[in-house]
Amino acid sequence: MMTSIITLAGFWVDTFSVNIAIVVFNILLQGIYGWNMVQKMPPGSGNTPKIVQLYTMNLFISGLQMALVVISKFLEDNMPKNYALNLGFEITEVPKRLGVDRFFEPKGLSFDPQELLNSEQPDEGILSVLENGGSSSSISGIGNVLGLEDDDFPESTSSDAESSILISLPTVSEPSPDKIAEKASPTTSDSKLQLQLHHIKRYAFLLVVLIYTVAFLLCLYF
Question: Transmembrane region positions (predicted)?
Fold first, then answer.
C-alpha cells in the first residue's frame, strides 16, 4: 500500500528532479522489501503467489512511470515551443466532452525555487506610490487601507513640494523590464505540448488507480 501511494503521488509532482527522486526511491523500496519477502517465503510448487504478482506489477508500473517522466522532460527541453503531439485526436478536449475537465485543471506540485519566489507578489499600487513618492492624500488613502487614521499623517500645505512625502526605497523591489516581459510572454507551462503532457499524466494516474483497484480486489477475494 505504501509503495502504491508513492507511485500515485509521483503523477502529481511537476518538478523533474523531485519526481525522479520519488520514482527511484520507490523502486529501491520495492526492491528491498520484495527481496526480503521472497527470502521469507517457504518453498512450494504451483502457481506464483499473488503477492509476488502484485509486487511485479507495481515494479513494472514504476518503471513505466520513470520512462514517462524522462520522455516528458526530454520533449519539453528539446522540442520547439509551438510543437504539439499528433495523436490523431485532441487529447486536451476529451475531458471537456466527458465533463471531467475540473480534474485536469489543477497543476501538479512544483518545488522550483523560482516559481515559489514568484508566487508572492507585492501590491503594485502601494509599491508605486511609496517608490515614486506621493502626496499626503495618497499616503492617507494607503493609511485607510492599513487601518490608520487621518490624524496620523501631517496636514497638507499649499505648496506641492511641501505637501509631498518622498520615501526612498531600493530599486531592487521593482522588477526589471526584462522580468516583466518574461512574465508577460507565454512560458513552456502554457505551451500546447506542456498541456498535452499534463493531460497524459492525469490519464496515467486514472489508469493506475483502476489497475490498483482491480489488482487488490483480485488478491483479496479471488
Answer: 12-35, 55-75, 203-221
